[in-house]
Each structure stands twice: as structure tokens, then as C-alpha cells.
Amino acid sequence: MTANASPTDKLPDESSAAHRSPHAAARPWVVKIGGSLSDWHRLGTWLDLIARPGHRHPLVIVPGGGPFADAVRDAQDNWRFDDRLAHRMALLAMEQFGLMLHGICPALQTATTRERLRSLIRARMPAVWLPSAMALDQPEIAESWDVTSDSLAAWLAVELEAAALVLVKSGPCPCAATDAAALARDGLVDAAFPLWRARFAGESWCIHRDDHALMEEALAGRGSPGCPLLRSPEVEARPGVRA
């Protein structure tokens, strides 16, 4: 069985009540769950929140790489293989964490394709994106460590025309609105993220993992989650490309 295969990749029934809902066309929120949460004892709290029905927007999780991506970095440092191969392995690392999230909370459906994601969004079913099928060999996605799950989450938000992007982090988030380039300089997001934030037309926030109650309020339409991440005025609204 390949990393892309999943028994949950059966498409929802297009004639179901969920598809007949007047809110079925709502634009999704893309929520990146940082890989640093992989061994956090309250990870399940976030997953249960996202899986809960009744949110104003459908939700799509982008998994971080966590310890699986760390293993790729260590292997590349040891064996000196090229960034193209490391990029492919890092996408699979994200898939490993994504499958783990599904295993912890089976109500989260896995998705590898645009069609599957859009079907889940229409059905208002929470999804975990497994990125290889969509992101591998995309000419606009640089194959380097400048692009991590932060940038890939923003890329997916652009692809899905999402209403919002939320980065759930273990590290400190700014306590006020800040631009994406400042966060990249501080190492809180990857180097390519400001370019993708500039391209993404929706709203974007950073939220600390302890603030799941704030996210719950935001999902109910009673506020904003975390710290706004603004477009950087000095960054052109175009993505980085491969070297």
C-alpha cells in the first residue's frame, strides 16, 4: 500500500443532506497543524474541535512534518542526497503525520486530490490533506527547505480559494498583527511563506496551540483566531520558483 492510499478516500454521496445544505458552497478554512504538536498531550483537543460538526466554514487540515520531517533532514545531512529527493521525502513526512491525525481522530477524512477535497468541502466534512499527489512536481513550488508545511498550507489555500488560513504553532505567536516577512525573519514561518501570503487573498492568522478555545469561538463566528498575518508590502505577489 502506498502512502497516498487510504480506505477513507471514497467520495461522499453527492445526494446526501450535507450537499443540499444552503451552506454547502461555503469557502473553507485551511488549518495547518504544526508537526511540533505531534507529541503534545492535548493534540486530540484540536482534532476533536476541528472534527466537530456545525462550524461556519468547512475545514481542511494541512499536517506539518514533525518528527517525520526531522528524520528526512537528518538523513540528508548524513547522506548528502539532493533537495529534490528531500522535498519528495518531506511531502511523505507530512503524509505520515496526516495519517497519524486521521488515526487519532477517524472523523477526519483524508484527501489526496482536488476533487476529493472539494467533495469533502461541499459535504462540510473535515479533511486532512495528504500533499504528494497535488504538490509534487508543481513548477511554482520550490524544492528546498525554504518551503515547508507553512508555505504549502498557503499554496493550498490559494488552490482552494479558501476564506482563511490558520497556522497552529507550538512556538510563540506575535501578540498583535504583523506581516509575514517579519515572522519569516524571526524563524516562525518558512522563508517562502511571505511570497505565498502575498498571493493568498483571504485572511490569515497565527495561533498558539494553547488557544484552542479562541479557535472554537472563531469557528462559531464570534471573533478571530490569534494574531493576523498581514501581506508584506515589500514582497511581490508571486510565488518562488525552483532554482
List keywords for this structure.
8 strands, disordered C terminus, 243 residues, eight-stranded mixed sheet
Uncertain runs are 1-8, 11-24, 237-243
Order of helices and strands: HEHEHHEHEHHEEHHEHE
Quantity of strands, as a count: 8
- How big is the Rg? 17 Å
Strand arrangement, major sheet: 3-4-2-1-5-7-8-6
| Tally of DSSP helical segments | 10
The percent of residues in helical segments reads 25-40%
Identify the overall geometry.
globular
- Report the average pLDDT across residues: 89
Would you tell me the structural class of the helices and strands? alpha/beta
Span between N and C termini?
Answer: 33 Å
The major beta sheet can be summarized as: 8 strands, mixed
How much beta, percentage-wise? 5-15%
List the helices and strands and how they pair.
Blueprint: H1 17-20, E1 29-33, H2 43-51, E2 59-63, H3 66-79, H4 83-104, E3 109-111, H5 114-122, E4 127-129, H6 132-135, H7 149-159, E5 164-169, E6 178-179, H8 180-185, H9 193-199, E7 203-208, H10 212-219, E8 227-230
Helix pairs in contact: 3-4, 7-9
Question: How does this structure look, described?
Answer:
The protein is of the alpha/beta class. The protein contains ten helices and eight strands. The protein has helices at 17-20, 43-51, 66-79, 83-104, 114-122, 132-135, 149-159, 180-185, 193-199, 212-219; strands at residues 29-33, 59-63, 109-111, 127-129, 164-169, 178-179, 203-208, 227-230. The protein is globular. It starts with 16 loop residues before the first helix and ends in a 13-residue tail after the last strand.
